UniProtKB/TrEMBL annotation, chain A:
InterPro entries tied to this protein: ABC-2_transporter-like
Source domain of life: Bacteria
Keywords: Membrane, Transmembrane, Transmembrane helix
PANTHER family, A to Z: INTEGRAL MEMBRANE PROTEIN (PTHR36832:SF2), SLR1174 PROTEIN-RELATED (PTHR36832)
Organism: Paractinoplanes tereljensis
Protein name: ABC transporter permease
A Pfam family annotated for this UniProt entry: ABC2_membrane_6
TM regions (residue ranges): 47-68, 80-100, 137-156, 162-184, 196-215, 250-270
TrEMBL record, chain B:
Source organism, top-level taxon: Bacteria
Record's protein name: Transporter
InterPro entries: ABC-2_transporter-like
Keyword Lyase attached: no
Pfam families, alphabetized: ABC2_membrane_6
Keywords: Membrane, Transmembrane, Transmembrane helix
UniProtKB/TrEMBL annotation, chain C:
GO cellular component: plasma membrane
Protein name (record): ABC transporter ATP-binding protein
Domain of life per record: Bacteria
The organism's taxonomic lineage, starting at the top: Bacteria, Bacillati, Actinomycetota, Actinomycetes, Micromonosporales
Gene3D superfamilies tied to this protein: P-loop containing nucleotide triphosphate hydrolases
Biological processes per GO annotation: response to antibiotic
Domain ABC transporter: 15-247
Cellular localization per UniProt: Cell membrane
Database matches in SUPFAM superfamilies: P-loop containing nucleoside triphosphate hydrolases (SSF52540)
Length: 286, 266, 316
């Protein structure tokens, strides 16, 4: 019995921490490898991100040219350009759109085989998503950032803590974004088909995460509400604001802490929802 | 006549398929119109920080945004789903289309007519109407004709871009999102005055690919403004004609693509 | 009615040669095929995977253009005259569907009537016939996505026949079907062929399809026709013979010979003997045997077509 158990990937409270970590690592690696096979899609996606980078960047710079002190919402030209290009790169790292794997598996009933595995679905999907994000950092992130560097003046961080804080913020954005997408996909447990929620997500996430324009261009009460009451600014705007050093260090740390709270909350919610769904599956037979 | 009934039947089939997913259909319809609402809202938000973008006021910019929104949705609602050609090629479902007694392009278009974009069309037309009213336009007969023709020209132009980018799939099945860079990218490009772009980028998108004639030049003609970039006033009046070469090129590339597909069967 | 002359189809494939280099190589999927098919024939087209079966079928239906050679169906050249040809042929690709996934099966038929511009009365008559023969009524109102594979294939067959084609091309019509559905599809096609007004051309991996349906067998390998004729002709050519197995009360006397047959096996201390028959008739041999020995039981075993075809592929 023990020998069989040892050969199966397991993550559970009873297992030694190191073994669970190895399993988690293996799942991350499998997510990475899977995306590494989509080489052509990576090229096509980067191309499109770059085209949109140019479009957004020129428009925002034109806004800056007419704004008071050339600083719309407190960003100077270099900060805006950095915001746009790093944002185009991050888009593929957080993987905001297009993930419907869980919903598809629920719809087709394949999810049942996930439940048979000794690793909880939220954990295994999160691990695979971190692998995907890592692949995104090494491929899709670089293209837009390099093009941005070539064509526009970008900012260089001035404070020592900016880069580590940015890395942490990106990690939290990836986890938070995964949590949102998991919850959207999980509606399929009750709706059979998550297409409706999926579409509303695609519609709202881009603009409310600060992709189309920095959210600080909105009236202040709205910006603050979005930041505190929704996880969305934490998916894109927070890491970008951290990188361009839009705020003093203390406020930046606060924003990242807010991001962390949301990330934990979302993963907890995902776990609860998944447990509820499993109970429903067992009781009602799907 | 028979062909028209056949296409009507295909469109009817799509309609009834949609109705079998009523809730999804409603959600899609709402999120579609929502996307256009957000595009327009973005313009308003950007103008909160500045009185002019690229030398144009909010009302003038909205005229370009509205023109683009209306023309683009007209195209998107008819041929927008041609983008799915990749899937038809990859799954071999295109073979089935080739065994039916109808030309492939209209067959694809009518089989997959994106009716969920209907509400978006209404919104696009409304914004265009409001923008026309919001600007102080000196209505001459020529401008009246122009105002009516421009959205149609834009629709044909964007339709051509849709077909052209979808045709990539004949040579490169995994072309993925590349087409979006030109279709949705083109829409974003024409939503703003082209004075905001740098020279090389403008030369490429506006004059080489022709996107400058979709909304910017006609909007100048409607507003009676001289072009800060130097094109003569009449350029705005003839710019809907840019749809003609675009459609011709798209048709030719599509034909070559089908021929290529037939010789490679990929 | 269907003619192929020196028909060829070459594909260029890129093969990896080294880390980054790719080499172009030309592969002939169909390598010079000459075939004529007459009205009313039922032709089975078999061959190993990648032998060029589907490619040939695609060239016949106007999906693919030939690299060289000629092909004509009803005197039409498929690719340039595709839409005219489409009105006169029916096509079933076993692994693709021409039905509307989200609509009830009956709706698909109605849509196809408009696409093929079939007069209502003709449509009704053909549909009624298919409904009877294929038992469609039970699931006519079910969305296609909810049909079983067997039900869907029955729908596909109907869809391909509603415009009254004179030729029906079937690419793997029984692939993936359960035993009962296979039987249903086969009996339907047999009946269709027997009526004589539809010419059938089908590719398959299931030789039972061929044995049940086809009076003519075309075996293709590496893009070339390696056999064209009846199943019997195939056996005759490859020396596969029927055999006669007899159970005897007493072993046969030594040196016993049977006219028109030769002993190929002796088992159970001579109580069971197997003869290979030279001709196709076993009557004479049985009569001669019964005259000299006391026969307890007797059976005639047909040669196994799978074996023959397997040998054929290996030889190619």
């Amino acid at each position: 019995m023990d020998r069989i158990g040892a050969s199966v990937l397991t993550i559970s409270p009873g297992r030694p921490f190191r073994a669970s970590l190895t399993t988690f690592g293996a799942l991350v690696w499998s997510g990475f490898r899977r995306y590494a096979t989509y080489r052509q899609a990576t090229i096509a996606g980067s191309f499109t991100n770059i085209v949109f980078g140019f479009l957004r960047c020129y428009v925002l710079l034109a806004v800056a040219a007419g704004a008071v002190g050339n600083r719309p919402a407190g960003y100077d030209v270099e900060q805006l350009a950095t915001y746009v290009w790093v944002g185009q790169g991050l888009l593929a790292v957080t993987g905001m759109w297009g993930w419907a794997e869980l919903a598809d598996r629920i719809r087709t009933g394949d999810i049942a085989s996930d439940l048979l595995r000794p690793v909880p679905p939220v954990v295994s999907y999160l691990a695979a998503d971190l692998g995907r994000a890592l692949h995104g950092v090494l491929t899709r992130f670089l293209g837009p950032v390099l093009v941005g560097l070539l064509f526009f003046p970008l900012v260089t961080p001035q404070r020592w803590q900016t880069v580590p804080l940015f890395v942490l913020s990106v990690l939290l954005a990836v986890v938070g974004c995964f949590g949102c997408r998991f919850l959207i996909n999980a509606t399929a447990y009750w709706l059979q088909d998550a297409r409706g929620p999926q579409m509303l997500w695609t519609l709202g996430s881009g603009v409310l995460a600060g992709l189309y324009f920095p959210l600080r261009l909105l009236p202040e009460w709205l910006t603050v509400t979005l930041w505190v009451a929704t996880p969305l600014p934490g998916l894109l705007q927070t890491p970008l604001d951290v990188l361009v050093e839009r705020d003093p260090p203390a406020l930046q740390a606060g924003l990242v802490a807010l991001q962390a709270i949301w990330a934990v909350l979302l993963i907890w919610l995902a776990t609860v929802v998944q447990r509820r769904a499993e109970r429903k599956l067992v009781v009602q037979g799907g | 006549m028979g062909e028209i009934r056949a296409y009507a039947a295909l469109a009817g089939g799509k309609w009834r398929s949609m109705l079998s997913y009523r809730a999804s259909f409603a959600a899609e319809m709402l999120s579609n119109v929502g996307a256009t609402v957000l595009d327009v809202t973005t313009v308003f938000v950007l103008f909160r920080a500045t009185a002019q973008i690229g030398g144009f006021t909010l009302a003038q910019a909205i005229l370009m945004t509205g023109l683009t929104a209306f023309g683009f949705v007209l195209a998107d609602m008819t041929v927008g789903n041609i983008d799915d050609l990749k899937r038809y090629v990859r799954t071999g479902q295109l073979d089935t289309m080739l065994t039916r007694p109808l030309p492939v392009l209209p067959q694809l278009v009518f089989t997959d007519l994106p009716l969920r974009k209907l509400l978006r069309l209404v919104f696009g037309a409304t914004i265009y109407g409001i923008a026309l009213a919001a600007n102080d336009i000196d209505w001459t007969p020529a401008r009246v004709v122009l105002a009516a023709v421009v959205p149609v020209g834009a629709a044909f132009f964007f339709g051509a871009i849709f077909v052209l980018t979808a045709s990539f799939a004949f040579w490169w099945v995994e072309s993925g999102e590349i087409g979006n860079g030109f279709t949705y990218g083109g829409r974003d490009f024409t939503s703003y005055p082209i004075t905001v772009y740098s020279n090389w980028f403008r030369d490429l998108f506006a004059y080489t690919l022709g996107f400058g004639f979709v909304s910017y030049q006609p909007a100048l003609a409607l507003l009676g403004r001289t072009d800060p970039l130097g094109l003569p006033a009449w350029a705005g009046y003839v710019s809907p004609l840019v749809a003609l070469p675009a459609v011709a090129i798209a048709t030719a590339v599509w034909r070559v693509g089908i021929r290529h597909y037939r010789s490679t069967g990929s | 009615m269907i003619q192929m002359r020196e028909l060829r189809k070459d594909f260029t494939v890129r093969v990896k040669a080294g880390r980054l280099r790719r080499e172009k190589r030309t592969v002939s999927a169909v390598d010079g095929i000459d075939l004529t098919i007459e009205p009313g024939e039922m032709v089975g087209y078999i061959g190993p995977n990648g032998a060029g079966k589907s490619t040939t079928l695609k060239m016949l239906t106007g999906v693919l253009s030939p690299s060289s050679g000629e092909v004509s169906v009803f005197g039409l050249t498929p690719v340039p005259q595709r839409t005219r040809l489409a009105l006169r042929i029916g096509v079933v690709f076993g692994q693709r569907s021409q039905l509307w996934w989200d609509l009830p099966l009956g709706e698909s038929f109605r849509l196809l009537r408009h696409i093929y511009r079939v007069p209502a009365a003709e449509h009704e008559a053909r549909l009624r016939r298919c409904r009877g023969l294929l038992d469609l009524d039970a699931f006519l109102d079910t969305p296609v996505r909810q049909l079983s594979l067997g039900q869907r294939m029955r729908g596909e067959l109907t869809a391909a026949l509603l415009h009254g084609p004179r030729v029906l091309f079937l690419d793997e019509p029984t692939i993936g079907l359960d035993v009962v559905s296979k039987q249903a599809v086969r009996s339907f096609l047999a009946e269709l062929g027997a009526s004589g007004d539809v010419t059938l051309v089908l590719t398959t991996h299931d030789l039972a399809d061929i044995e049940r349906l086809c009076d003519r067998l075309v075996v293709i390998d590496h893009g070339r026709v390696v056999h064209d004729g009846t199943i019997e002709a195939l056996h005759a050519r490859y020396g596969s013979r029927r055999s006669l197995v007899v159970e005897l009360d007493e072993p046969l006397p030594p040196g016993f010979t049977l006219p028109g047959a030769s002993v190929t096996g002796v088992e159970a201390d001579g109580h069971r003997v197997t003869f290979a028959l030279d001709g196709s008739s076993s009557g004479a041999a049985v009569a001669a045997l019964v005259a000299v020995a006391s026969v307890r039981d007797l059976s005639v075993v047909e040669p196994d077509i799978e074996d023959v075809v397997a040998r054929l592929y290996q030889a190619g």
